[in-house]
Every structure is written in C-alpha cells, then in structure tokens.
Design brief:
The structure holds two protein chains of two kinds. Chain A is built from ten helices and no strands. By secondary structure, chain A is mainly α. In chain A, α6 runs antiparallel to α7, α7 packs parallel to α10 and α9 runs antiparallel to α10. The longest helix of chain A is centred in the middle third of the chain and has 26 residues. By secondary structure, chain B is α/β, with parallel strands linked by helices. Chain B is built from 14 helices and 13 strands. Classes of the chains: A mainly alpha, B alpha/beta.
Chain lengths: 259, 325
Amino acid sequence: MLRITCLFIFLLFARAGFAAADTTAVPVKKGVKADTAKIVKVPAVVKADTSAVSIRRFNDAAIKKYAAQPEFKYNEVKTGGLSWWTRFWIWFWAWFQSLFSKNKTEISGFAVFMKYFFIMTGVAALVFLILKLSGINMLQLFRKKPYSAISYSEAVENIHEIDFEAEIENAVAVKNYRLAVRLLYLRSLKQLSDAGLINWQINKTNTTYVTELTDATQREAFRRLTLQFEYVWYGDFVINGDIFKKINTLFSNFKSKAE
Amino acid sequence: MENEDFEQRTDLGQLSAAVEQIKATLGSIIVGQQHVINLLIAGILADGHILIEGVPGVAKTLTAKLIARAVDVQYSRIQFTPDLMPSDVLGTSVFNPQSTAFEFKRGPVFGNIILIDEINRAPAKTQSALFEVMEERQVTMDSHTYKMAEPFIVLATQNPVEQEGTYRLPEAQLDRFLFKVEIKYPTLEEEIAIVTQQHQQKTVEQVADVTPVLKGADIIALRKQVRELYVEPKILAFIAQIVHETRNNRSIYLGGSPRASLAIANAAKAIAAINGRDFVTPDDVIYVAAPVLRHRIMLTPDKEMEGVLPDDVIAQIIQKIEIPR
C-alpha cells in the first residue's frame, strides 16, 4: 500500500512537472521502453468546513464620509474641457504640419500658397535677424542716396535748370539784393561749368572752384566774386542798391570776359 | 577786413595781430605744421581742450610748450605715468598739526594752461579724475568745490594707442577734447630745414626765449568776440547734418554727440576769426570737422581691421552732403 501511495505521488508530481515545463513532444528513442504502468485513481478525502462564518461588512456611513473627501477620490481624473485657444493651436499645428507633410497626396491651392508664405516669412525673419545682429542699417541698405533727415530747399536746385536772367530780374525788382547776388554767383558757376573750367559737384566749396581755375587772371576775378557772395550770403551783410550795382558790375564783367 | 565794400561789424584787429604774432613765434621754432598751429590757436580761442597725437619725436610736447609759453598765464605740466593717482593730479587733503585741521593742497591741475604729457600712459582711474575739471572747470574734493581760474586749457599729448604701454582713453574723456590734432612726420624738405635750423642755432633750449603774446584777460576777451561771430542758419544745419550722418554711417559704431556739433560750430567760428572774417563759411566747417570728430567717432570692428581711418570716413560723409549755397 505504501509503495502504491509513493508511486501515485511520484507520478502526480512527475506529470505536473512535465506539463508545466515542456509541452513539446519528445520523440521516443529506439530501445527505450514505454512506461506501461497504470495510474491508479485515489479518491481525495475532503472534509467540509462547518465552522461558523461571521460576515463583516463595511460601515456605509464611514465609506460615504471618506468618499466625499477629495483626497480619497483616486479614480477621478479632472479632465476638464480644452479651451478654445488651446484647441485652436492644436488645430493650427496639425494643419501646419500637414502643409509640410510628404505623405499628403491631395494639396489644395490655398495650402500650397500658405506653405510658401510660411517659408518666405521664415526666410525674411532670418535675414532680418542676421542684419540686426550684424548691425547693418536697413534703411540705407537699398538706398542709393544716403539717409538724410534734413532737407535743403537748395539741395534740389540745379543750376542748369534755373532761368537766371528772369530770377535775377525778379529779385532786383523786389529789392531782394541778397538773393540777387546769390543768383549772380550761381550763374557764374554755371558759366564756368558749361565752359568746362570747373567740375560742378554739390559737395565742392567755393574755394575748391577757385583753385580749379587754371588761368590766374580768371581765378583772381572769380575769387573776388566769391568774396562778395560769401559776405552777402554767409555773412548776412546788409546790401543796398548802391553796393549791389558795384557787385553786379563785377559779375557782368566776369560774365562778358568768360564768354 | 578783406572786403572793403561792406562796413566793418566786428573789430578783429587785436585778434589778428595776436594770431600773427603767435604764428611767427611758433614758426620760428617749429618747421611747417601750419595746420597744427592754426588748430592750436583756434582751440584756445574756442575755449577748448586739445589732444595732440603723434609718434615719438615729432615735437608734440615742444609744440604744446610753445603755445603755452606764448600766453602769459599760469602754466603747469603733469607727466602722466602708469602709477599716477587722481590725488596727484587734483590735490589732496593733508592734516595740519598746528591748526589741527585738514587742509586741501591743490594739485598741478590748478593752473591756466595744463600740459599733460603722455596722457594715455595713465590708467582709466586717473583719467576719470579729469572728467569734472575738463567739462565743468571745477574740482570737488571733500564736499568742497574749487572753481578753476579762467582761462583753463588742457593741452595733452599722446602716442598712438598701438604704441607699447599706452591705454585707450575713455570715450567720455575724448569727447571733452575739442580737437584731436595729429602731428605727422615732416616732409623731406621740412626735415632738412629742421636739421639745418638746429645746427645753426647750436642751442637746445628754445622755449625759454619765447615772449608771451597774450595775457589771460586778452584770451577771455577774444573768446567773447569769437563766440559772437555770425553763423548762417544753413551752415548750422550743415554742421548738424555732418554730425547726424556719423550716427547713420555703416562704418561707424559710435557717432558724434551733440557736443560734437557745438564743438564744430565754435571751432569754425575761431577759424573764421583767424582768417579775418566775422562769419563762418562752409570751408571753415570742413577745416575743423575732422579734428573735432576723429576722436569722437568709433569705427566698426571690421572697418578697423580693414585699416580704415576715422578721417577717411569723415571725408566720405562730408562728400555726400551738399554745400549750402
């Protein structure tokens, strides 16, 4: 009996062990005899538990009390609705990514436009950043003339476009001798420029024009005119009709000699 | 007055005579450098301080000493060294055991013409001691303010910054100098004249022989006269435009300040007076523009590396602006 019990326990554990470890079929090698031992079923002896069971239940009031406290609401996740602003950005970035997506097969004309719009904006921002960091004045970048905050009324005046005779007559008629002397001087400059004796440039001073004249007599005569002009125009010396006549004679003589 | 067709408004006789005398005095010792001498005289007449820059051996200190001796005022000299302290320049309070009180001992800066030799050999700490006295003509020490006597002129010499053992002066201090006058090497003819002159004189001390031409009161009177000279509004706008353009030029990192505009206007008046006129012409403005601006503007690092000089940029700026006419 003891042998049978031992065999039963051995087979039981052996069976369970094989079942758990490996279920693959193992080929039976030649010369190995199959186990032909019979399994003897032994009925288990189970006794019913007849001890008294006392059922303990949770205190409903306590559960409700604790459940009402937020600290104990472990499973509740405050999801809350996304704000319209967040939803907009989620939509925007999804749309933005779709513009540059390679997998998208159908692209509308508007999407293509927006795609290149964003590329151009990005490039412009990059260029702006580079220019800003390198300290280049963007106002001057595409200007041919230097940036100038001050404008002169004389700056746009071209001596080759002024009707000197008429303007001088007008100035003398209203006794604006100061202006008349200025016009006489500009006329002389035009005359010298037309004759190729000076190279008219807006940035040259009167002294420069005097030194440009090669003929000594003409240079001295023009230096004299320059002196008159500077006293009247830059020096703001009071000029009356008599002084103007003298100055006008000097300019007229210079004009006739230069012709 | 050069133009006799007009009535004389300002009597520049005394000024012209003094200028001629100073030129003659300096010209007898210094060969050439007429532009430098003109600017030094203009600086004194325009109530400005002058910075003289040049490589060693081009008579910077001699020129400054001569111009100082040509004026009969209290003259003092400070040799700037790397270990010079502000108190060595301004003065310091010393305890007097007899009176049991501190007494202020005035430094060498208390004078009329101060020659600061090799100004850029002292560090920024000492340079900053000059800020107040150069701009406000006063020294504040131990809660007392000591006013400087008029005229007060600082003549400073310096070697170019590239020279060994020199510091770059602070921008705030540079802005306080009316002119930065550059003394270049003499031409071959001038150098022959220098050697010949020195050989014939057979003497080293020349400065002691200089006779003062002007007194302190004369300078104050002449300065008042110069300040009252006429400047046409268009020329004032021309000055403002030159300085304004220095702030918009791509080659310039730091442009001229409004103090630079005022300096050009005052210096141009002085040059006009030296030339015997009581009004300013565009030539006067252009003449002083570079000496006034060259130390006030700061070129961009790339332009500095390219070897561009401030004078080149200033010339370009002026060439772009129309002469008021």
